[in-house]
Amino acid sequence: MDREALKAEVETIQWWHPIDLGDGLVTPGADVHIRARLAEIRMPDTLVGRSVLDIGAWDGFFSFEAERRGASRVLATDSFCWDGGGWGTKKGFELARRALDSRVEDKWIQVLDLSPESVGVFDVVLFLGVLYHMRHPLLSLERVASVTGDHLILQTQVDMLGIDRPAVAFYPKVELNADPTNWSGPNPAAVVAMLRTVGFSRVEIISKSFPDDIAFDPSGEPQPNHVTVHAWK
Ligand SMILES: C[S@@+](CC[C@H](N)C(=O)[O-])C[C@H]1O[C@@H](n2cnc3c(N)ncnc32)[C@H](O)[C@@H]1O
Q: Phi-psi bin for 17: left (phi > 0), alpha (psi -120 to 50), beta?
């Protein structure tokens, strides 16, 4: 692609992900923590011979990274943001795919419609930054489990911290980040318990953005805390 034309096109798009398109051109994504998040999720260094499904991929940073790490096939799926339902669109994903000469596939599909019949089963599934957008978190995880052959990498906002029992905060309005598309804030115990309930045999919290001795905050104000979890079938 002509570099000046690419630069000009990049500037017409509102990006969520900063994506390195080469030769020093990085898309101006709003998620300035993307490199820290990539380190946090501990995506395997090599994905050679593995198929990867990236659910809620948006601009596709993690899909392109999985391809860069050698995945044999990567499918990026999304619905809301690709529709322009929020402030983003699918234009970023499409432009980055062209600029990177990527073979990442795409499919518009809702989380609740994921199934072996609709998308197939993948060795590695990424479910990053999506669970708290789900009105039906357990049902969503059931669908995610149905398309995971081996290894799920999940990152989510968490709430109800300092409570040992599984608990999920419900955001009926705009309680979390003034965003009406945020519905549920599970605590870490709930994330683990839900993943076991939907059929993962081993579940490990691999990173937390808060201390172990955090106390429950009865004010009900959601805090910007998150966990990353790896789970295996
Ligand atoms: C916070 S963004 C996370 C994007 C990316 N996975 C990341 O971690 O940076 C949430 C994504 O989930 C998608 N999403 C929200 N609800 C969805 C649904 N019901 N079905 C499919 N995707 C959904 C949004 O469109 C958006 O792209």
A: beta
